[in-house]
Amino acid sequence: MTQKKATPKTEPTVAVTAEPVDPIAAQYTTGKWHGHPNYQCGLCPFSTLSDDAMRHHVVQRHMRETGLLDRYGNALARVGG
Ligand SMILES: [Zn+2]
Predict the structure, then answer these.
(1) pTM of the model
(2) The predicted structure's pLDDT at residue 5
(3) 50: CA distance to ligand 1 center in Å?
């Protein structure tokens, strides 16, 4: 006669943080303004309700092309000058 012990599952949960970091999105935060998403530049006082406008602002104002491509063929840019 064998008895099986009920063993609770105690497997550790590993947080997977393999999301690719968007170097442009990392430069601004998203808040709320009258129910609309409000994009606030983290490098200057600029803010806008348009995500496209914010991305354009970050690239044009705060990044410069490095002339290099990443492994996906995207142009690498870096903050500052
Ligand atoms: Zn800015």
Answers:
(1) 0.58
(2) 72
(3) 14
